[in-house]
Amino acid sequence: MASAFLPVLPQGDVDRAIQLIQQAYAPEQRLSSDDQRRLQQELFEIQRRPEAWGLVLPFLGHPDPNVQFFGAHTIQVKIARDWDAFPEDAATQLRDMLLELTGRAISSGQNKVILRKLFVAITSLAMKLHPSSPSRWPDWLRSTLSAFSTMGVPREHIMDFLAIVAEEVESADLLPPRKAQMKQSLAEAVPMVTQAIHECIATPVVQRSPHDLPSALKCLQAWMAILPANDLTPFVPSLLSLMIPTAESPSPEYDEQSFLPASDTVQELLTASALAEGAGTKTVTEPLLLWLDRYGSAIVQATVSSGFVDDISHSLCKLLVALGDHSAMYFAKNIASPVLVKPVPCPVPPPHAAPTGLAPRAELPQAAPAVHRAAGEALWNVDYGFDVGEEGEAGNEAEERERDMMPVAKAVYSELVSVLRRKVVWPPRSVLSGWARDQRDKFQAFRRDVGDTLINAYYVLRDDMLSFYVNDLLQRLSARQAQDGWEEIEATLHCVMAVQEAVPVEDSPHLRQIFGPDILGRLPKTGDERVRRTALHLIGKPPPSHHTRPPGSYASWFTTQPTQAPGSPTPSPLMNAITYVVSALPDPTLCLFAANALRDLCDANRTALAPHIGAFGELHAGLTGIPDTEKAKVLQSIASVIQALPPTEEIPPIEAIVSPVVAKLFEALQSAGQLPEEARAMAVQQLETLTGVARGLTRVTDSLLAQDESPEVQAALKEMNRAREDPRVVKLREAILSAIRGTVELWSTDASVCDALSDLFKSITALPSDVTLLSLPAGPLLELVCLAAQRQLTAVWLSLAQVLVIQLNPPSLLPTTFKSEPSAEASEVALNVLQVLLQTSLSVFAQPGAMASNPDIVQAFFGCIDAYVQHFMPVFYRLPPELFNALIQCAIGALSLQERYSLTSACTFLSSFVNRTATNDDFAAAKAALAQTHGFQIMRAVLFGFAGVAPRSAMPNLIELLSTMITRYPAESKQWMSEILFAEDFYPCRATPEAKTKFIKTVFGSRSLKRTREGAQQFTLVARGLEGSAFGYATVSM
């Protein structure tokens, strides 16, 4: 084999590379991770050398498969990454050598992983040589197949090669013209490819290799998006012929080696080809329906009879899902059309291929609801060809369509609702105990996904749907025997819960029945955890799940019901729900869900529950057996009810629930020396409880919707302020603040305490219109934040400082032309806090690598400082000059950070600061001084960022900062840019003097943000060597 054109690697290096591979990857070697990395790095260093082309032949000729793999891998990587360094006149010789090497590898029986690497290498080489003018490898695919045929390559490997070709070309990162040339070369090969696949499928089983058919069908799947519809259509009968049973008695038997890949291919045809999205109903849908009518039902019946979901039935269900998604409009038209049509079996599948109680299989539970939704939407979108009158009567078409459609839609959805109710039933415990964890998770996910389908059904059936569920519950409760399970009743409750977001918040006789004595009153109050948990979720929404959004709850529906007076003999639905929830609080397995439900109920029904405050006092007194974590939520619930009382009447109950919490917090502080861990945990719990109470006291109505100067708001504020001056409340707030101060002094460096304090600070401070009896002023809390930050600077304290600084100068809720100036007292507090935070933060950031290692702190720091820019701009120019200059230099240094969010926060601060300084006449002298002292350095950092210092994801923020500088300092910016770009010490990049000149002209041609963005983006691509690359232009951040 001619290989003189390849660069030569010393034999010693080749031997060392082989030794490294065998040491790193031999099965018998037991290396530490450090040794493995060391060997891999040394091997990588050899492979990246320009002469590493010389590794290919010795590697591929070596008997060790691991070494052979690296030979194939090396030539693939070299073609993809180092092509520019390869001699152009040797490309043809490399092509011939690569084809010969691949033929030898196939004939010698090398494994498919190695062959795949070689096939990818051939395709990569084609993408280098074919799309050029003139092409250096014209008709490359046909010539490659011809070469393989001459070498006697088996059909199986030819099919594998063709599949890889389609995949690689589709995913290739090429510029559009080159990509189009490659796709055209595939399009020209379509007749040859389809003929080869047809021949393979048509070959009798006894005459073909066992792997020929799977490879051919994989190839067809890979080419599916390339083949035009008229080339795909002939494959449908061929594929269905592979799915015919080999024997039909006594039960159908299928050849899995044919059925499964054929079914996968049909699914691909239905979802990702020119015949997808409802196309080809005559050529695809109807033949498939005939096949389903003949064979599908038998497969389902056999599965139900055996109780086992095998690979055939599993594949059939996936096929049904794909067909349902593809042909939803066809089914809707033929189900609902008034024209008489021959009935066809409806392939909308149930969620399980097996009867209820069998474990769900793979992705089917998740896929089936999507089919139901698609079918339901199609019922409304399909054109049924209803007759309409002349143009003057066209306005009646919608009414006529709805009249004709409604009975059909209701019939379809009624059946769907009934089926889905059965399908969400959990199996009995005896069956469920045999399910694996992942099977339970999949079934749980299916139950959640059913909700979207049921919501669609509700919009059609509305009250009829709730009536169905109510009647089902009443019948099952009436017929239930003591030994019966609750699974069926729980499933119906789950369905009622799933449609909550669609049910209007208005009086409903059906919901009154559900939350009345006939249903809720007959549900168990002990044992049977699942049905009780679902009932609690029905009342108050469950905790959020990482899988999907949680279903809603009916807590707000109770606001539509009349308020029940204390002592009334007939409990209202709201009090029924409260009673049911409270009964579950002592149960350890349900306490969390009961506490959440109680919190939601009380939060939404404050006014209705306020007359029952005495009962909540009794509840508070009986909380002894409830864990502290849930007790906090119960206290938040009680606080929500207290908030609905007049402020002066709030004082005694607030004292009653808060004083013990504060006392326990002081107890934790005092016991910290003896039992530090227990004391800290107790302190965190009490802080979380105070947070819950503070949140509960916050008004439900949005303060932004109220006007500060309205008589009602002013009267309420005066009443609240009078109540806040009550000595009992003043003493309580002082105790809370004292306890918080003690906690900060003792545990401010503990992460869990920091988080708890952060939540408390945010909930116990408020705007003036939202103030509560417990609201604390921002000033003393900022003092504590500074104390904590000085001990250990964290993002938590800086973020809190940002929130509290804003509250020092709260925004007006009335629209004004000018922003109100902060008071002198607030400005002094802000200045003192700013100095402490700057001294603390800048001393931390001054340590080598500190900013790069703590991006969260950097981001929070500049976010906090930006809040000062928005609310207390003058205090910056009251800082000591050295402290002010250190801040600006820190921000400039942050523009070179590699972490995006910390860099962008610095950009935002600098942009805001420059804008505020330049646009305020009071800062005219400061504007000039800022430009003279820091302007050049800011511009230098921005331009260095474009050239390669900053990550490309931060370009939009750097562009905004550049635009700000150009707008506020036009003459100076032009001079700075010229000096920086053409300086000898400019950041090393690929930008030529012409590119730099063009950049300056583009930016200063109009000084608009659009032109600045265009110029900066183009300069960035040029400077980083990405001009003309598909990656560069595809990843430009707009």
From TrEMBL:
UniProt-listed InterPro entries:
ARM-like, ARM-type_fold, Exportin-1/Importin-b-like, Importin_beta-like_NTR, Importin_rep_1, Importin_rep_3
Q: Is Magnesium found in the keyword set?
A: no
Checking Pfam families in the record gives: Importin_rep (PF18773), Importin_rep_3 (PF18806), Xpo1 (PF08389)
Predominantly, its location class is: nucleus
Q: What keywords appear on the UniProt entry?
A: Nucleus, Repeat, Transport
Q: Which residues form the Exportin-1/Importin-beta-like domain?
A: 112-233
What highest taxon heads this organism's lineage? Eukaryota
Q: Does the keyword Transport apply?
A: yes
SUPFAM superfamilies referenced in this protein's UniProt entry, alphabetically: ARM repeat (SSF48371)
Cite a GO CC annotation.
cytoplasm
- Where in the cell does this protein reside? Nucleus
Give the UniProt record's GO annotations in the biological process aspect: protein import into nucleus
What family is this protein classified in?
Belongs to the importin beta family.
Name of this protein: Importin-13
The organism is Trametes cubensis
